[in-house]
Design brief:
319 residues
């Protein structure tokens, strides 16, 4: 039997807790998709640190174990399972592109070595003599001007295509920021609409005032796993920050990936704090608060790196 949403008065803080929690859920669901698409578009995963993803996955695994041990709501456990699956997909994609590109580089080196050791010195003069003789013989032949004019037209066409590509590249920075902003707004709208539907249908109901839900004691093992998860989340971004700083580049990274991470962490922490600020409840949820709100500082560092030495066209568009 579903609860009547009008049976318990909806307080403003409970409504904000439900909305921010729902927005966080939407952000986490779509979190890894932008980086998967970026890797596919680049045909490489060199931009993202594999150590960052592996430590993050350890955090997700311990988060899942802690949530299951603590007996948290099924939505939280299901989301933790989804995190582990998504992490596995992203790490597998990175390893695949790493192996594939290494094989390509090995084939290129072996081909260059074989060409260098073969009769390359004899082939180039022959080709050069042949092309010069052909160009000289084409001077007085019928149709030679048509061929040369056609080649000039093709050359001009390729130049126009290159200039068009450069224009598109210059506009890509501004359009990327517009797309990212629209994506964030759509995630917020979807999360808010999802909460409203769940509330009106009785799937979500506000907790009673005298039942803050934080008085129940969590198992010590579950809380330890929560702290381990928080440490992993806090430490995961450090290899990525070091990699960006060392290479002075954020190429290959999806800005939307980190924007969704920031949105998910901010709304997740806000959902907890809006629900209750009582001491017992706060201490029970402290590991998850540290893991979510603490990583926002590191995300801010990555945003600064995007602005400092990210995509040059994006920086020009922003400035």
């Amino acid at each position: 039997m579903s609860a009547d949403p009008s049976a318990i008065p909806l307080r403003w803080n409970e409504a904000l807790s439900g909305i921010t929690g729902s927005v966080s859920l939407a952000a986490w669901i779509f979190l890894l998709i932008p980086q998967l698409v970026e890797n596919y578009r680049q045909g490489s995963a060199d931009g993202i640190s594999l150590l960052f993803l592996c430590v993050w996955m350890v955090g997700d695994v311990t988060n899942l174990a802690g949530a299951a041990w603590a007996g948290l709501v099924p939505t939280v456990v299901a989301l933790a399972v989804y995190f582990c699956i998504a992490d596995t997909v992203l790490i597998s994609q990175c390893v695949y592109y790493d192996v594939l590109n290494r094989r390509r580089e090995a084939r290129k080196r072996s081909r260059a070595e074989s060409q260098g050791s073969g009769g390359e010195g004899e082939v180039e003069p022959l080709l050069r003599r042949r092309t010069t003789s052909e160009s000289q013989s084409n001077i007085g032949l019928p149709g030679s001007r048509r061929r040369s004019s056609a080649s000039r037209r093709m050359h001009r066409h390729s130049e126009r295509r290159e200039s068009l590509a450069s224009i598109l590249e210059e506009g890509r920075g501004k359009s990327a920021w517009v797309k990212n902003t629209i994506s964030i707004l759509l995630i917020c709208a979807a999360g808010t609409a999802g909460w409203a539907i769940a509330w009106r249908s009785g799937v979500w109901a506000p907790s009673p005032v005298d039942d803050p839900e934080g008085g129940t004691q969590m198992a010590l093992g579950a809380q330890i796993l929560g702290y381990i998860s928080a440490v992993c989340y806090l430490g995961a971004r450090i290899p990525q920050i070091i990699k960006n700083q060392r290479e002075r580049s954020c190429e290959g990274l999806s800005l939307l990936f980190f924007l969704l991470s920031l949105l998910g962490n901010a709304t997740y922490g806000a959902g907890i704090l809006f629900h209750s600020v009582e001491k017992e409840y706060f201490l029970t949820n402290l590991p998850w608060l540290l893991g979510s709100l603490g990583t926002m500082v590191e995300d801010g560092i990555i945003f600064a790196q995007f602005h400092a030495f990210g995509d040059p066209t994006a920086n020009e568009a922003v400035e």
